[in-house]
Amino acid sequence: MKNTCTKQSLIACAFFLTLFFQETAAQTSFTKRTVASGFNSAWEVLYGPNDSLWVTENKAYTISRVSIATGQKTVLIDLRATDPSINFTSSSGTQPQGGLMGLAIHPDLYSPDPAVRAAKPWVYAAYVYNRGSCPGTNTSCIFTTKIVRFEYDGNALINPVTIISTIPGSSDHNSGRLVIGPVIEPGEDSAHTQYRLYYTVGDMGAGQFLNTTRAENAQNVNVMEGKVLRLNTDVDGDGGQNNWVPNDNPFFNGAPITPQDYVFSLGHRNAQGLVWGNVGGINRLYSSEQMDRTDDEINVIEPGRNYGWDQVSGYCDGNVDGYKIGQNTSADEETFCNNTAAHKEPIFTVFTAPAADMAALMAESNNNNWPTVACSSIDFYGHNVIPGWPGSILLTPLKRNMVYRVKLNATGDGVVGDTSSCFRNDGNRIRRITVAPDGFRFYIARDIGASSNG
User: Fewer beta carbons within 10 Å, N or C terminal of the chain?
Assistant: First the structure.
């Protein structure tokens, strides 16, 4: 790694930093202040209307608005108090990974026109709500996740509408990042022409920790596990659950609606990062994905593509051939890649162990010694503010005390040069980085404590 950025001071647990870019002759440097603190495992941080941050707290199940100027926190909704379908507490029993996770704000809420804001005052949240059967020590409790649309009235989130309530959940690898596409996407008529939601679902941790006997379904297109889903932001008039499913999804059948109808891409392990970026006039959907011992991935997500898990980890380079990955007891990366036309390799990995190192790596039980960094989020930097930064991916790791910057090529479908790192030496478990619209400020959230997994 090279071209390290610099800054000052110390990060405490569970709060948000704002970092201000200051251009100097010698280096890219930042000043820093604490915006707010005392959060209960903040998971998502969005830049919201009126210079605010919107935050999900994954254990408390609250969504809050934070004033960037004063740090004042306003709870917009307490889901444990308002949603009786949440059938477990955070204080007892097996817990889901993530809990309250993704959050997305409809683009119209950012409009300066009050009539536009009032027409679609929508906010979307994804959270685990049901703890089902708990088969035993090798198969964790079976959880279920929902995505709900709320209305924002200026002070609270009200009038919930359930978009989908059948997404599988687990104690591990729920993923849970939720974003809205950057443009209104075309459809067969005005009702089908709208913004779309994109949501990542992990492989449930199949093959590890409490889920060693859980089935691996990342390659099964009719199970939502290990997928990126694509949904409508509003009903399209097709009726029933089909109201929320775009008819042009790559595996759409619709007679009746089944899990494959929602699927946008498959073969994912744990994609906790998801962001749209525009390079060279082309909008692309980027993901960051936690792999096992090697090859955390940055991917360009495209409809109908297969990203390989649990047949491939990272590139089709054969470095894990013969070893167990997920529930695949003996990987053969080259055979899968050569025989799977829809497969798409990552544009970058963080970081790849060569085949010669795999025996020792597979024998290493301490995951802090693995080359993977446990990617927890990404954001796209597209502003012409910091020299050399436009067209970069910013990636947060749970296992390192820095934020990585990866420079994209001129077309946005590859990476040029090496990684650089910024915002170092404040402790690991960095959960989220969010870029302000002005390109000068960055907001960083850090987990409240250590964990053995993501």
Answer: N
